[in-house]
Amino acid sequence: MNASCRAGHRVQHSPRPRRRHREGPARGGGPLRRDAGARSAGRPQRGDRQPRGHRASGGAQSLRAGPLPRLRPAHRVRHPGGASASYGAAFVRQASAAIGEPVRIISSKREAELSFLGAASRHAIRREWALVDLGGASTEVVIARDEKMLRSAGLPIGSGVLAATYLSDPPKPQERARLRRAALRELTQAPDGEVERLVATGGTASNLPGVLARRNPPAVLTTADLLTCESRLDGHRASHLATRYGMPANRVKALRAGVEALLLLLDWYGLALLHVSHEGLRHGMLLAYLKRGESW
Description:
alpha/beta
């Protein structure tokens, strides 16, 4: 058994169990067990352990070494969903004229690459890890090793869409059960891997720590932490919680569904800890610009 010290306590880690064939969440049919640390059938239980030899990224060090230069790269946005090519061209011209800077449209693939670049600059480990970019309409899941993307998939389980489709204000237990069943059907498309760490970026991930503690929000969330967030977010109407937590009511509603998605993803990969990344798309854009200049 391995031993490590955390917060003054000596923690014993059992040897990592052998991974078993996935049977559970997609086939089980029933709702996920809600007790802290629960795992779906067929998924191994293992702790989140940082491998030896973990090193910081050189790119991240260059950003933290001193004040950032005043950068004015071209603004890049995603094409509005369902819009025609002519509408997109008109939008780019009007937006460029309005802000006085050239606007370029990036693909969803490039957006995922930039988000990964930002998160990997701080959270990459040498063994396989997963990045979850949880958005309002969809979720991008990337399996990586160190700072190299291995495979990825986009899942239609965005927090805003799930909240609007399944949850009332405040949510009822049976509504959460329906949301879980729907999300689990989509998780069958998630990329597989021997994941040692799960990192989440996006609005849900960055706001959930503030639901737990406003003064010193945690950077790593346990399953129990996420269940506490769920309980607090379901306790009152969104308008009341918006005042308490200092965020828009629509953000509160999205967080309710987002915390459920993150619980399911932790369970899917058999992990107990969620690492919150405040480095994402914007950070990746800066790193790409520092490396490539205008051709980023």
